[in-house]
Amino acid sequence: xxxxxxxxxxxxxxxxxxxxxxxxxxxxxxxxxxxxxxxxxxxxxxxxxxxxxxxxxxxxxxxxxxxxxxxxxxxxxxxxxxxxxxxxxxxxxxxxxxxxxxxxxxxxxxxxxxxxxxxxxxxxxxxxxxxxxxxxxxxxxxxxxxxxxxxxxxxxxxxxxxxxxxxxxxxxxxxxxxxxxxxxxxxxxxxxxxxxxxxxxxxxxxxxxxxxx
Length: 213
Prior knowledge:
- By secondary structure, this protein is α/β, with parallel strands linked by helices.
- It has one domain (4-210): Aldolase class I (TIM Barrel), CATH 3.20.20.70.
- Helices cover 31% and strands 21% of the residues.
- It is built from seven helices and ten strands.
- An eight-stranded parallel beta sheet has the order 7-6-5-4-3-2-1-8. It has a two-stranded antiparallel sheet with strand order 9-10.
- Helix 1 runs parallel beside helix 7.
- The longest helix is centred in the middle third of the chain and has 11 residues, at 89-99.
């Protein structure tokens, strides 16, 4: 099965290597100070240089200002920006125009009413990341290890490439792919031994399970 995998929240070169060796298509770097996966710009710039050619480097940001995005894009060689906050469709379009990079917009789901946002963002984003909506009062907009009801996606017509996220693990990702027909999946906490601490064995197991190996 040709499922493309994104390993997000990487902080060490060994885990970048593990992701690439396992066959991940994307690696994600987090720029959000409240996250245990947050990277300083200098560290992120050095880490990005270890990513093999052919693996896309994605910067995850949350309601970042132009100044913050300027600093990130100047310090880190990137292939895509992931907007994981409350950015409006207009803001997504602004970011695309300003930086000339593909933009992935995260949309959180917990109930059927949340589906309307998918259509809004499909008109402006290059890709959609479909994630579990964080619970009220949560400190993080993603990476909480929560899944949503995958049946909400049944029968959806997609105008853009999309990626499934939210509570995925080596143990459930194969079922998630079968249940949703997702061609792309994203994982962060599901390949960690503690918040922000990735595990090379779990990364390999996740990619293998996602791809039906």
